[in-house]
Amino acid sequence: MCSQILNDDKTRCPWCLGFNQYIKYHDEEWGVPVYDDRIHFEFLILESAQAGLSWATILKKREGYRKAFADFDYKMVADYPDSFVEELMTDSGIIRNRLKIKAAINNAKRLMEVQAEFRSFSDYIWDFVDGRPIDNQLRSMENAPATSKQSDQLAKDMKKRGFKFLGSTTLYAHMQATGLINDHLVECYRYAEVKA
């Protein structure tokens, strides 16, 4: 139990139990509404890197990603030359997958195109939930969806705009992480805090 690890009596979403880094992420970040494009870019990189892997693996490499991708400065990443992909392929601090690395660089460029059209990536993505977090009022993790109508629409639109490695399931996870969707269980102590 998480309460035994932290020596507290807070009720949390069960997916975070048993791994302190997960608990910290759950307690401090997951589900908090994000309006900063740099943070959105960070999660887009991390979530696209996660495809086929566990989120625990990605959290353990988060600092490696921070270093490899210029502290998630999408303007700098967009300017990475093709030759830098080869350098990143030797970086043990990240997932060394050529397609995912190239996707991160590509997605930095696409994000800036979205900014040019919508003022910010945040404005663009929040429009898919009409500017307000969706509250699924989950009672159990078995009821948690992997996709939604909104994530389907977002994935379709982002694919049309040239984003890579960001399907509906990955974008649903992004929407959960960045607070567009509140999927904390109702009994979780963070549910009400995030909702407020």
UniProtKB/TrEMBL annotation:
It is an enzyme of class 3 (hydrolase). Keywords: Glycosidase, Hydrolase. Signal peptide: none annotated. Gene3D superfamilies: Hypothetical protein, domain 2. InterPro entries: Adenine_glyco, DNA-3mA_glycosylase, DNA_glycosylase. It comes from the Bacteria. One of its GO terms (molecular function) is DNA-3-methyladenine glycosylase activity. This is DNA-3-methyladenine glycosylase I. The lineage of its organism: Bacteria, Pseudomonadati, Bacteroidota, Cytophagia, Cytophagales. Its EC number is 3.2.2.20. Pfam families: Adenine_glyco.
